[in-house]
Design a protein that fits this description.
The chain has ten helices and eight strands. By secondary structure, the protein is α/β, with parallel strands linked by helices. It folds into two domains: 34 residues; 269 residues, TIM Barrel (Alpha-Beta Barrel). α8 runs parallel beside α9. It is globular, with a radius of gyration of 22 Å. The chain starts with a helix and ends with a helix.
């Protein structure tokens, strides 16, 4: 049996440990609120970096999906992105490419046929191939590494097995051209769970499972057929984003970010630990673009972008 002295010492030790943990937790919350790893506490616009903020580490090649920041004029968004240290943009009309180039920004990804009308239906193949080839040509012209593709929406009468075969057949027919031009065709997996907003989820989309998308990519059997790993969509449909990225790293050519739930800022109001995720991605040797694709909820959209960029500047 322990003596009274031993019991007292054990109690004191535990009390000291708890006291230190509580103080440490408060210190960590204070630290995270202002540091580049700002995800531990709920954030608002007051936690955003100053207007003169610029990327410090630059290990992650950060880009941004311009559509998320509408109605902010592109003439304002483009120089702001360059000022904060982004290296590219995407999801923007090609008429703005010259302005982007003037500000030293590249094109991280080119568009194609959209996510609704896709190769799941063979009747769409001619359309999809045409749009993909146009996207490939544009990527070559502007030194972009890739063009995006999608499966399209499920349709009555098309089984999963047939839809799989149709998609693979279409991509095979365009990947020879992609190989000639050294351009990646990046398939994006999208979530079908969120029906609250037309760009937060896509009910009915066929490519809503990471493993199925990877299976289709491998069936195409082209070094230019790749996966667009959207952390937000992966989290909703499959979860475990760090381990999944490591598992599929050999076929991943592009990354998108957003907070979940809500496709919001990468702050403490959402569930993903972005500093840890970005560090894990970079540790795999990934050197492609990481594009911010969250929909701002803050009044100051550029402040929310600076915040997200800082969070990912690990």
């Amino acid at each position: 049996m322990k003596s009274q002295k031993q019991i007292t010492e054990k109690f004191q030790s535990r009390r000291n440990w708890l006291h230190g943990a509580l103080l440490g937790g408060a210190g960590l919350c204070s630290y995270f609120a202002g540091a580049s790893t700002a995800t531990a506490a709920a954030c608002d616009e007051s936690d955003a970096p100053d207007a003169d903020y610029k990327v410090v580490n630059g290990r992650a090649k950060q880009s941004v999906m311009a559509w998320c920041f509408k109605p902010l004029p592109m003439e304002e968004l483009i120089p702001a992105c360059a000022k904060m240290g982004l290296v590219a943009m995407e999801g923007i009309d090609k008429k703005y490419y010259p302005l982007m180039k003037q500000h030293g920004l590249g094109v991280s990804l080119c568009g194609s046929h959209g996510f609704k009308r896709g190769p799941i239906n063979k009747d769409n193949h001619e359309f999809c191939v045409q749009k993909l080839r146009e996207g490939i040509d544009l990527a070559v012209q502007w030194n972009s590494p890739g063009v995006i593709t999608f499966t399209g929406m499920r349709e009555k009468g098309i089984s999963d097995e047939q839809g799989f075969k149709n998609c693979v057949e279409c991509w095979k027919s365009v990947c020879d051209y992609a190989e000639q031009k050294n351009i990646n065709v990046a398939l994006e997996m999208l979530n079908t769970r969120d029906d609250s907003h037309p760009m937060k989820g896509h009910p009915g989309y066929f490519g809503d499972d990471t493993d199925r998308c990877v299976e289709m990519i491998k069936a195409v059997n082209s070094p230019r057929m790749k996966l667009l790993f959207d952390i937000y969509h992966v989290q909703i449909m499959n979860g475990d984003p760090i381990r999944r990225f490591r598992q599929h790293k050999d076929v991943i050519s592009h990354v998108h970010t957003a907070g979940n739930p809500g496709r919001c800022e990468l702050d403490g109001n959402q569930e993903l630990n972005y500093p840890a995720i970005i560090k894990a991605i970079l540790e795999t040797g990934y050197d492609g673009f990481i594009a911010q694709e969250f929909i701002p909820t803050w009044d100051d959209k550029l402040a929310s972008l600076r915040h997200g960029v800082k969070v990912c500047d690990v």
